[in-house]
Amino acid sequence: MTDTRRRVKLYALNAERQWDDRGTGHVSSSYVERLKGISLLVRAESDGSLLLESKIQPDTAYQKQQETLIVWSEGDNFDLALSFQEKAGCDEIWEKICQVLGKDPSVDITQDIVEESEDERFDDMSDSAPPVELPPCELSRLEEISEVMANNLSSPVRKEKLALAIENEGYIRKLLNLFHMCEDLENTEGLHYLYEIFKNIFMLNKNALFEVMFGEETIFDVVGCLEYDPTSPAPKRHRQYLKQLARYKEVIPITNPELLAKIHQTYRVQYIQDVVLPTPSVFEDNMLSTLSSFIFFNKVEIVTLIQEDEKFLTELFTLLTDEATDDLKRRDLVLFLKEFCSFSQNLQPPAKEAFYKTLSTLGILPSLEITLGADDPQTKTASIDILTYIVEFSPSVVRDYTLQQTNSTDEDQMLINVVIEQMICDTDPELGGAVQLMGILRILLDPENMLASVNKSEKTDFLNYFYKYSVHVLIAPLLANTVEDRPAKEDYQTVQLLGLILELLSFCVEHHTYHIKNCILNKDLLRRILVLMKSTHTFLVLCALRFMRKIIALKDEFYNRYIIKGNLFAPVVDAFVRNNGRYNLLDSAILEMFEFIKLEDIRSLCSHVVENFGKVLDDIDYVQTFKALKLRYDQHQDKLKDRERTALDSVPSILRNSRYRRDHRQLEEEEEMWFNEDDDFDDGEAVVPATNEILGKKLDSDLDSIGKIIEKKTDGNGPKLMNSSSKQTSILNNLSNNSTGASSPTPTSADVKSTTLFKKALVDYEGDSDEEEDDEGDILTPSHKRARLS
Length: 790
Hints:
Elements: E1 7-13, E2 19-32, E3 37-44, E4 50-55, E5 63-65, E6 69-73, E7 79-84, H1 87-101, H2 113-128, H3 142-151, H4 156-168, H5 171-185, H6 188-203, H7 207-213, H8 219-225, H9 238-245, H10 257-276, H11 289-308, H12 310-321, H13 327-344, H14 349-362, H15 364-372, H16 377-393, H17 395-404, H18 415-424, H19 432-444, H20 458-469, H21 471-480, H22 492-511, H23 514-523, H24 525-530, H25 538-553, H26 557-565, H27 570-579, H28 585-599, H29 603-617, H30 625-649, H31 653-656, H32 664-678, H33 687-712, H34 718-739, H35 749-763, H36 770-780, H37 783-789
Antiparallel strand pairs: 1-2, 1-7, 2-3, 3-4, 5-6, 6-7
Region (Disordered): 711-790
Organism: Gryllus longicercus
GO molecular function: protein phosphatase activator activity
């Protein structure tokens, strides 16, 4: 059976203040993720569709009426009601609402009576409040009019009523007539009242009133009213500026009267906002939002109207690229284009994309190649601003254009190279243009905003292009200034430029991989940059250090080997020593770099620093960095030794004898053990082969060790080697005789030959021939003996 307790009818109050039935369904309360809170849900009884989804709001007044009705307001002027079939269901939902709001369910309303009555009065004000009655527009009533305006600004509803009264009665034009009378009569008091009246009309923030005030016939009179500030000792001259000093230039004649009127109006309204009106306080900041919107939409309309006039823009770009155009005309064209792009910032993304696509089609980038190299500072600055607008919105447009230039344009005329050249040749002592151009290059070189698709890889193509055609232009000033072991030029402008180049190269190290690596390794760039560590400008020293720090941060062994091979820590350590422990940024930056090497355990660099600069750095005791670095190095060395020892222990002793000199006592112990074991066997044929095999192995290993000793000795040590070898031979012969069980110490003919061979090999080893080796092989081969004994 269907649960009838939660069965409800949903009602909504319409514009005629009548309740409309929105459907019948079942109500529930649950947490809704989208609304981030407990909400009332009503699903239709017929098909289960959602009739209501309303979050329970803490500042909304919910009211329980007639035991089965819950009423509340949803937003402005939208009242809702739930009518329950059963009282129990109404009580359950009311209890849930009160629980969410932290109220006692025994109350019939969730807000205090006083608060509710105030809210109700405020909500009903728009309908029930009487309209504002404006005094007659006469000179003698200006003070009263000013008071009425000021008194009605405190309440939003009263502001609405006041604005409606001013609009309906055509009050602005009447006030402007009074303004003319006051000026003619030089009625200063009346002019002061009119200033206050019009300032308050602006505070009403009503677009309909702005339309009237900013009309062609009225705007100058409105500006005139705002010239008479009571706090100012003399009136301002805003109208004189707008009419006489502010001159409108038409670089290309505009034939559209609507467009022309919009341009004039926008300039004047912008002037009113920026200059004429007093700066709004913190509390008044949002009071002029409609004025800002008025200017905003005007600018959008201007851009749209110009963009639609294809003839106008085509003529503009034709003049811009024409060699016959004089410099002043070109400057005006570029300034117009800059203002045009500035207005376009107000467009929505789709409209802005269409705007820049239009400019690109008309040839804005080839035009900028010309204007960027202009001698006129204003033209150059405006061109940089235009390029910045384009690159910030769509860097891919500029990248595509530069890639198309690869086969069709000379290297020095490519757009990227033109940008780099202008950055390098900036004549401004503060390098304002160079800083802006460096920002443009940084955006273009940023892989984060590069597109990659199935058929196209912008990142690979553009970076290949840049490192092939442009990077050598960028680093040319750097290489030119670091030919010797000290910077060639140390003037402020040069070092500022080198700082910008290093900042861009550091960005490349961080974001590009093999491209910048090849450049650094092939041009030995880090060594040249570290020459700047000897600069007298600390900020440039820090720039060079930052570049090296970016490289070390990559923990790339290619870079590490390059640093070690070139001993490139030497300039850093020298700068550290020259700083002499002063507590400054340079000292901290160098210490941080060594701390990074220690923390990241970059072993190759750690070993290099300790082995080459340990004596200098060991004396630094105000930080523990270098002691910790030395400790880390010692730990590495101990691990290496332990590893070698472990590897040695794993090698069998009989193999180890061929590489390492054995202890004499160990040799005697092994021989003694052998003799003791030999006593356990009777003389017989079974023992002899095993004995000969052991002797053969010992003989081979001892010969190997003797041969290696000989290789390490010079010819002058021959007699000493002869004696030792003779002694060794007699030992071997004795062992051989004993092993065969013979009691006679006299050597056999084979033994004599063997001894002779040892002597010959020890003395005459450099001149041995293949024939002698063959003979020796015959003499030493024991196979016939083994065959006979077995």
